[in-house]
Task: structure prediction
Amino acid sequence: MAIKSQKDLLAGLMFTLTGAAFTLGARDYDMGTSGRMGPGYFPLVLGVILAGLGILITLQSFGSKPQPGGEIGHFGWRPLIFIIGANLIFGLLLGGLPSMGIPAMGLIVAIIGLTFVSMLASKDFCIKRAIMLSAILTVGSYLVFVKMLGLTFQVWPWFVGA
Result:
């Protein structure tokens, strides 16, 4: 028996491990019942389902001969670095880092920073698209989180005063 698809094998193993981690993490919470679910019920059920799907995908990755296109290619470091960096910058801009004297810049600046840095993950970065997307995301996020949901957090940088 050979590995038919390396991609399916690794995806199945990843799903299985993630599902198992959620299942193990959910043990520390109250399960409740199906009619009155506790905080551990949902992660437990999702973890079991995810682990089960992972096992099925892993088993299907084995066969008699390899599939064309099932090999794993090179690792995309650029997207990984920029997407993780964008999330870190979003958190830093949104909440600041008071222990180091870095003030919070608010939601608007954080979303603009997130958009521009995450779009650098693409090889065909376009400044016009980045400006349009950041404007749409900023207005949409402001309307949804601040106006509709009424969440209270800093929207503008401290020097704007709004």
Notes: The mean pLDDT is 89. The chain is about 60% helix and 0% strand. Residues 127-148 form the longest helix (22 residues). The CA atoms of residues 26 and 73 lie 35 Å apart.
